[in-house]
């Protein structure tokens, strides 16, 4: 799950070196925290949150295979 989100986020930002993804798993729940440079936060969030919501939708679709729930925060 972490790798999928990392690939998507790295394609969106200018400072690819500053991208860090934290993943924790608890009882069928996956929590992912995205860390990017301050200047790139707008690129990841998008207008009215459209991009981050799309990333969340993709991650949730992938989570169905693993039978778990995904939460993503920036």
Question: Briefly, what is this?
Answer:
This is KH domain-containing protein. The chain is an alpha+beta fold and 74 residues long.
Question: Could you walk me through the main structural features you see in this protein, from its secondary elements to its overall organization?
Answer:
This protein has 74 residues and is α+β, with helices and mostly antiparallel strands. It contains three helices and three strands, in the order αββααβ. The chain has a three-stranded mixed beta sheet with strand order 1-2-3, with helices on one face. β1 (20-26) and β2 (29-35) form a beta hairpin.
How much is the radius of gyration in Å?
Answer: 12 Å
The top level CATH class name: Alpha Beta
Name the CATH homologous superfamily: K homology (KH) domain
Q: Residue-averaged pLDDT, rounded? A: 93
Work out the helicity level. 40-55%
CATH topology: GMP Synthetase, Chain A, domain 3
The number of domains: 1
| SS-based class | alpha+beta
Biggest sheet strand order reads 1-2-3
In whole angstroms, the N-to-C terminal distance is: 16 Å
How many H/I helices?
3
What fraction strand? 25-35%
- SSE pattern: HEEHHE
Instruction: Based on the coordinates given, report the CATH architecture.
Output: 2-Layer Sandwich
Largest sheet: 3 strands, mixed
Number of E strands: 3
**Poorly predicted segments:** none
How would the global form be characterised?
Answer: globular
How are the SSEs placed, and which strands pair?
Blueprint: H1 2-12, E1 20-26, E2 29-35, H2 41-45, H3 50-66, E3 69-73
Parallel strand pairs: 2-3
Antiparallel strand pairs: 1-2
InterPro entries: KH_dom-like_a/b, KhpA
Pfam family, one: KH_KhpA-B
Protein name: KH domain-containing protein
